[in-house]
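Cross-check.
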Amino acid sequence: MGLDITAYSHLRPVGRHADGGWCEDDQHVHAFAYNDFPDSFRGIPILGTDAFGKDYFIDGGCYAITGSTEQHSFHAGSYSGYSLWRANLAEQFNPCGEEY
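Predicted model, tokenized:
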């Protein structure tokens, strides 16, 4: 487990599909996040819980990739690697001399 971030630009909103299930279209990006991170949906309408009916995901529906879409990805590695990355980031931007 680690941190995976993917950002897209110039997507076209599609919304939910008629069947209400998970999108299988390779040219679509399904927007979802854990309920604990609602701020990650700034600018994205929340359409309810995820397609599987679980309470821990919020669903923003599908967005179609356009000719102008750019994709940027970042992976922080394993859980231990992610923890080291976070500690390093905290030290750089909030040096307090404490161990985390």
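The chain has one domain: 4-93. The radius of gyration is 17 Å. Passed to J.P. for a second look.
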